[in-house]
Design brief:
Blueprint (H helix, E strand, L loop, with lengths): L7 H10 L3 H8 L6 H8 L28 H16 L2 E9 L1 H9 L1 H7 L5 H15 L5 E3 L6 E3 L5 E3 L1 E3 L2 E3 L2 E2 L7 H16 L13 E5 L18 E5 L3 E6 L4 E14 L5 H16 L1 H5 L1
Parallel strand pairs: 4-8, 8-9
Antiparallel strand pairs: 1-11, 2-3, 4-7, 5-6, 9-11, 10-11
Amino acid sequence: MSDVTASPSVRALAREKQIDLEILAKDLGRTTLTREDVAAGASGPAAADGTIYWDVDHSQYGPVSEEPMSRFAQVAAQNLAAAQTLIPAVTHHDRADVSAIETFRKALKPEAEARGVKLTGLAFQVKALARALKEFPRFNASLSADGKTLTLKHYIHIGIAVDSPFGLSVPVIRDVDKKGLWEIAADIGDLAARAQERKVRPNEMGGASMTITNLGGIGGTAFSPIVNPPELAILGITRAEITPIWDGEMFQPVPMVPLDLSYDHRVINGADAARFTTYLVNLIADPRRIMV
């Protein structure tokens, strides 16, 4: 008997697309499959006439070697390609002052060590994003496939993009708005660690209100993350850097973290994105407002 959980319509689609659900589930690292999983598994980088337009014999130009893409990586790539093709996305860039957060984090370091929890700036940013989503409910929504219905979510779950040896995965922290800072920090550490070992459970994936992709530990000053459907926006974060900020009399050295908000322009317009990001920036600059 199959260990894969899938509805009759999903199984019918898999038969139509000639996709083995057992293999697909194994490659994705979970046992519950949706229509989106099957549809993504069946799609490919084909042109309108069905040809693969970058199918090139590279060996004619010099020595090459080949490395197979895992099924997990193939499905992720197909999802990203579909999202980039179908979603008219725009990226809004801003910066947030993290002086107060860094001061607060240093003050909490002894307690963090006693609790055995790594308290990073990301925990504050996750909590701030949850507050912003509550303030701007249209960002916490999904658009139907036909573009006619907007589903507003009355929960706040935040996806955390994790780079692992198996490829990019997005485990989800549930009910962030109902959790305290220590619990959020512990969830981040736990999910990130288990994602590295491909031990994230199926019920810990999917259903996010919005995803955060954080490159701060690697580098960069800005980027344009791809919206992770069926979400309507994604927040990119890069490494904080000391920036000279004019205080009215002189320049002050201020640690600023770049924020990159990519959003689906079919639902969210530029003015709304600017308001959302400004609200988020103000929350990050004053962590007391995050905790209230």
